[in-house]
Structure formats: structure tokens, C-alpha cells
């Protein structure tokens, strides 16, 4: 059965609204079927193909069939895909600038905001910090002890002992950093290639996909997405620049997204391609 394409459809629960279908389920994003200037076109004439008519407009400008209402699947508790024939606006109804302002992928899926991406990063960071604590406790048991000695030497002003302990710590710290990076990479690859959602992304209702098609990431794409974070361990400020890049990028991509050809979007990813 073919996957219903993402886009704006008649809202099953409100005939005066449109609701965004992300390709997997209905989202919380809605918009009025009537734009603020529905009665006028840019030249003062009547708007054609706007959200007020009974004929939709797809991204090519072709007329869509007369709409029928999709069902939300409330009886089963599972949102059901819109069924054809259906009023469908892959990008937005014509003459509706208020909807064109929503940034989407090339195939019309709404991009996640920087705020949601940052929130997901914080949640994943907390999870990985807890995991890192266990790794430090079991994999490098002497690390916490040596850090305690380092603090004691600093408080005592014993420079010779301080220097010696710092030298002793270099190896365990490097070992811990490598192990933690590998664990973080495994954490990302497992979730990106299975659901497209780490726990942080799942909590915020966003996911990662290839820019040119939906679905979880192939392993090669997922590995490429970890290249910039790896280089950022050795290049000052690269990690900060990478994290802030979606704020001004027109495709809301971080640098690691550009390297891998990925985008972070609203909603889930389909497990299987049509």
C-alpha cells in the first residue's frame, strides 16, 4: 500500500481548518482554510485554488479532486492516513502566504525548529551523561580517585605532586573520552537507523531523515553525520558553530546535516518505504 504523501489536508475534526499530515500521522499543526486575504488575489481579483474552494492545488498547480474527509481513527486510537480522493496541498494552498512561511523539505515535510533540536540535544545529553558516569565508574575506576588526589594537591599548593598527577591522568582521560565518544556514536547510529529518533527527538516529536526522501537513515549516512562532531573534538568552536548553524540556515541544517545530506523534521519517520 503506498504511503500517503505529507502535506496539508482538510482537518478531519474541523471543516474550517487544514491539518498537516507528516507522512506517518496527523500533527498538531493546523491552519484556517480561509487565508486573511482569501477574497482577493495579488492583483485584486478573486483568488483561485485557495483553501476556500472545493478544489485543492498541488505543488505543480494542478487541480486536485473534490475532497472527501479523512478519518482520525478515533475508534481504534490510531491516526489513519487521508484517503484519496482528498483535498491536498503539498506545500500550501495558492495565495496563502501565511502557510508558505512554514519551512519544509523539498517534498513538503515541515522542518523542526532550532529550539526543538536544542531541547532534544539536552535530553540526549543528560542520558549520555548518566551512561558516561557508569562508564567512568566501571571502565576507569582509578579516574575518580586520581581526580580527588588532584584536588587535594591543588588545595595544598603542592605543585610537584599536582604536575605528577596531571601526567598520570592524561592516559585515563583520553581512554575515557574515546570510550564515551564511541558510546555516543553507537547511541546515535542505533536510533537514527531504526526509527530516525533518539529518545530526545522522540520526546520533542521530531526526527532525522535524508533531505531527499523520508525514512530512517542508511548506516552510511548515519556515520557521515558523526564526522563533524568527531572533528569538533579537535577544532575549537566547531561544535558550537555546528550547533548554532540551523539558526540562520535556510534549510535549518547544522553542519553535520550538510555533510550527511540530512534534515530534522516534525513527526516520525515511516519504517518502510512505499
Which labels suit this protein?
two-stranded antiparallel sheet, elongated, alpha+beta, four-stranded antiparallel beta sheet, 274 residues
Order of helices and strands: EEEEHHHHHEHHHHE
The global form is elongated
What is the average per-residue confidence, as pLDDT, rounded to a whole number?
74
Low-pLDDT residue intervals, each spanning 5 or more residues = 36-78
Domain count: the total is: 2
Number of strands: 6
Topology of this protein?
Blueprint: E1 7-10, E2 17-21, E3 26-32, E4 88-89, H1 97-100, H2 114-139, H3 141-156, H4 159-194, H5 199-204, E5 206-210, H6 219-224, H7 227-231, H8 238-244, H9 255-260, E6 262-266
Helix pairs in contact: 2-3, 2-4, 3-4
Description of the molecule:
This protein has 274 residues and is of the alpha+beta class. It has two domains: 1-102, no CATH class; 114-266, no CATH class. It is 41% helix and 10% strand. It is built from nine helices and six strands. The strands form two sheets. A four-stranded antiparallel sheet has the order 3-2-1-4, with no helix packed on it. The protein has a two-stranded antiparallel ribbon with strand order 5-6. A hairpin with a 6-residue loop joins strand 1 and strand 2. The protein is elongated. The N and C termini lie close together (7 Å). Keywords: Cell membrane, Membrane, Transmembrane, Transmembrane helix. InterPro entries: DUF2510, Pra-immunoreactive, RDD. Residues 1-20, 27-91 are annotated as: Disordered.
Amino acid at each position: 500500500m503506498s504511503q500517503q504523501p505529507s502535506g496539508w489536508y482538510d482537518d478531519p475534526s474541523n471543516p474550517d481548518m487544514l491539518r498537516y499530515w507528516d507522512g506517518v500521522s496527523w500533527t498538531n499543526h493546523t491552519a484556517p482554510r480561509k487565508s486573511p486575504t482569501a477574497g482577493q488575489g495579488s492583483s485584486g481579483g478573486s483568488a483561485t485554488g485557495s483553501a476556500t474552494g472545493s478544489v485543492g492545488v498541488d505543488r505543480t498547480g494542478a487541480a486536485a479532486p473534490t475532497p472527501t474527509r479523512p478519518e482520525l481513527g478515533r475508534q481504534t486510537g490510531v491516526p489513519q492516513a487521508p484517503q484519496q480522493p482528498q483535498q491536498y496541498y503539498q506545500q500550501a494552498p495558492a495565495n496563502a502566504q501565511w502557510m508558505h512561511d512554514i519551512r519544509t523539505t523539498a517534498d513538503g515535510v515541515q522542518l523542526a525548529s532550532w529550539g526543538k533540536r536544542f531541547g532534544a540535544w539536552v535530553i540526549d545529553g543528560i542520558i549520555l551523561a548518566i551512561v558516561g558516569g557508569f562508564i567512568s565508574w566501571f571502565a576507569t575506576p582509578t579516574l575518580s580517585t586520581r581526580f580527588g588526589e588532584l584536588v587535594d594537591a591543588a588545595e595544598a599548593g603542592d605543585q610537584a605532586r599536582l604536575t605528577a598527577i596531571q601526567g598520570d591522568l592524561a592516559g585515563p582521560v583520553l581512554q575515557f573520552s574515546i570510550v564515551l565518544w564511541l558510546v555516543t556514536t553507537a547511541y546515535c547510529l542505533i536510533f537514527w537507523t531504526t526509527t530516525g529518533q533518539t529518545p530526545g527527538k522522540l520526546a520533542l516529536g521530531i526526527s532525522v531523515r535524508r533531505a531527499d526522501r523520508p525514512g530512517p537513515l542508511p548506516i552510511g549516512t548515519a556515520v557521515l553525520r558523526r564526522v563533524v562532531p568527531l572533528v569538533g573534538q579537535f577544532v575549537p568552536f566547531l561544535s558550537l558553530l555546528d550547533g548554532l548553524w540551523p539558526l540562520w540556515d535556510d534549510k535549518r541544517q547544522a553542519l553535520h546535516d550538510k555533510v550527511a545530506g540530512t534534515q530534522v523534521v516534525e513527526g516520525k519517520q515511516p519504517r518502510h518505504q512505499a
